[in-house]
Write a structure and sequence with these properties.
The structure holds two protein chains of two kinds.
Chain A (H helix, E strand, L loop, with lengths): L1 E2 L2 E2 L4 H15 L9 H11 L3 H34 L1 H16 L6 H8 L3 H25 L3 H9 L4 H12 L1 H25 L4 H11 L3 H29 L7
Antiparallel strand pairs in A: 1-2
Chain B lengths: L2 E12 L3 E12 L3 E5 L6 H9 L6 E6 L2 E2 L7 E4 L11 H11 L4 H14 L15 H14 L4 E5 L7 H17 L3 E6 L2 H7 L2 E5 L6 E5 L16 H18 L1
Parallel strand pairs in B: 3-8, 3-9, 6-7, 7-8
Antiparallel strand pairs in B: 1-2, 1-4, 4-5, 9-10
Helix pairs in contact in B: 2-3, 2-4, 3-4, 6-7
Classes of the chains: A mainly alpha, B alpha/beta.
Bound molecules: adenosine-5'-triphosphate and magnesium ion (MG).
């Protein structure tokens, strides 16, 4: 961002919004929005409390397992769809439906199928992430240069070798983009799971704090969540840029 | 004269009723370079891909060393017009990639690749990536990769079309050396008459779609001339003229 030709540091807009938040909070306009400084103090206080650490651990666990499953299943499925007409015709409608479906509405069904525990939360997390990962991997494979595919065949690549040594790498820029968006969606998924299925992790904290009108606690947890999601997504964006050098000349 | 590759009564009709080849028969002598010469869109790439096993002919058959072709095989290597290099791999890995796919151990395949990198004059660029190379250098990587797998038959689809005229002439000279040195059968697609006459033992002139062989020319004495004398040789000039005479009616 530039103002009068002076380059402002990357997060300047965040600083402005933070200041505004502080002002509105200080003015006591609404109990819903305590001043930012108060929230940060609360964050510091609860940051090493056992309840918070337990919630962080539970959330991180469900999130990691759910996202890993989405990646490990989503990428191969997407690549196979891009390579196999029949599979593509079979699966694509479903992927598109689930991509835009209100997944929250499916959570009760998952509870019936998989119970009220961690398993359902993990599956919810995966369901939020996997569709965009599949779709992006598929798109990545579809744009692979034809002669690269023919080169593999000419030099005798087995299907597995072609998959691992050519298709995956050729589609990597798109795959990484899908994983990044998938992870952001998974953050949403894990919290919704925790709120709807069983009150654990950050979901439980949100519920507890908002039911007791502990607004600065509520916001503190939300900020932590936002910061985590932001960091992961930035890390992946950096990774994406590392591979973008060949995205342009595949 | 021993025949390494023969195509018999090849027809190819693409979906949408595009008849690219009709009843095409051609023989490729071992250890020699045969050019496929013809106007754009006449089916040269199609024929090359059928020989490589990438495409199936609608009818007819291809034999390599007397055995019918049913798909790609280690006896044939392809040099692609657009190089088809792995952009995420350096030159060394790209050149060794054919061997990698055949399961040759790392150190062995890198030694072999190194040798071929040197042969095509890319010494010192082993660790460069394709996007850091010029078009001519990329083409040489593709050539080295095809040479490294030691196939008997080399299929080259307009390998010199992406390089400038000077480099092209250099490549043509190098190619003559290669044909002489390596006892391989080269099948070379081009649409430059001069290039075909310069590098070939045998020139097959294809006519526009549906394509068949119009004429086969065998310049007899050009091989005995030095690389820099060929272009002044009366036989060279006559052959170029003759080919132009038979093709010009299709261009007009
Ligand atoms: N996949 C395809 N589907 C339909 N038609 C095709 C396909 N590939 C090639 N053709 C057609 O077949 C004909 C021969 O194509 P081919 O690529 O073999 O020509 P070429 O001689 O290599 O031409 P150029 O010199 O321009 O490379 C062309 O008319 C082309 O339009
Ligand atoms: Mg062609």
């Amino acid at each position: 961002m530039f103002i009068k030709g002076i380059r402002l540091p990357g997060m300047s807009s965040l600083i402005i919004w933070g200041l505004l938040w502080e002002l509105v909070g200080q003015s006591g306009l609404t109990f819903f929005l305590p001043p930012l400084s108060e929230i940060l103090i609360t964050l510091y206080e609860i940051g090493d409390s056992p309840a918070f650490l337990k919630a962080l651990k539970e959330t991180a666990q469900a999130f990691t397992v759910g996202v890993s499953a989405a990646i490990l299943i989503g990428i191969p499925v997407g690549i196979l769809m891009g390579k196999n007409r029949l599979l593509d015709e079979l699966l694509l409608p479903w992927v598109n439906i689930f991509l835009s479906a209100p997944l929250t509405a499916l959570v009760p069904v998952l509870m019936v199928l998989f119970g009220f525990g961690m398993r359902s939360i993990i599956i919810t997390t995966s369901l939020f992430a996997i569709w965009i990962i599949i779709l992006n991997s598929r798109a990545g494979v579809l744009q692979i240069n034809r002669s690269l595919v023919e080169m593999g065949r000419c030099f005798g690549a087995t299907p597995l070798a072609a998959f691992v040594k050519i298709y995956f790498w050729a589609a990597l820029p798109e795959i990484l983009g899908g994983v990044r968006i998938g992870i952001i969606r998974a953050v949403k998924g894990v919290i919704i799971g925790q709120l709807l299925i069983s009150l654990v992790g950050f979901g439980a904290l949100f519920e507890l704090y908002s039911a007791n009108f502990l607004m600065s606690h509520f916001w503190a947890v939300l900020i932590v969540l936002f910061a985590l999601a932001f960091t992961i997504s930035e890390l992946l964006a950096t990774l994406e840029r590392k591979f973008s050098y060949y995205a342009a000349n595949r | 004269m021993e025949i390494a590759v023969s195509t018999r009564n090849i027809s190819k009709t693409y979906p949408g009723n595009v008849e690219a080849l009709r009843d095409l028969s051609l023989e490729f002598p071992r250890g020699q370079l045969t050019s496929l010469l013809g106007p754009s869109g006449c089916g040269k790439t199609t024929l090359l891909k059928i020989i490589s096993g990438l495409l199936e002919p609608t009818s007819g058959e291809v034999e390599v060393n007397g055995k019918p072709v049913t798909g790609p095989g280690p006896d044939r290597a392809f040099v692609f017009q657009d190089f088809a290099l792995l952009p995420w791999a350096d030159v060394l890995r790209n050149v060794a990639f054919g061997l990698e796919l055949r399961g040759v151990p790392v150190s062995e395949r890198e030694d072999i690749a190194q040798q071929h990198i040197k042969n095509v004059g890319l010494d010192g660029f082993e660790k460069s990536f394709p996007h850091e190379l010029s078009g001519g250098m990329r083409q040489r990587v593709g050539l080295a990769r095809a040479l490294a797998v030691e196939s008997e038959v080399l299929l080259m689809d307009e390998p010199f079309s992406a390089v400038d005229e000077q480099t092209r002439r250099k490549f043509q000279e190098d190619l003559l050396g290669l044909v002489e040195r390596e006892n391989k059968t080269f099948i070379f697609v081009t649409h430059s008459i001069e290039e075909a006459v310069y590098v070939s033992d045998q020139i097959a002139i294809l006519l526009p779609r549906p394509s068949r062989v119009h004429e086969i020319l065998r310049p007899e004495n050009l091989r005995t001339k030095g690389v820099s004398d060929i272009r002044r040789d009366p036989e060279y000039l006559d052959t170029v003229d003759r080919i132009w005479a038979s093709l010009r009616s299709y261009v007009e």
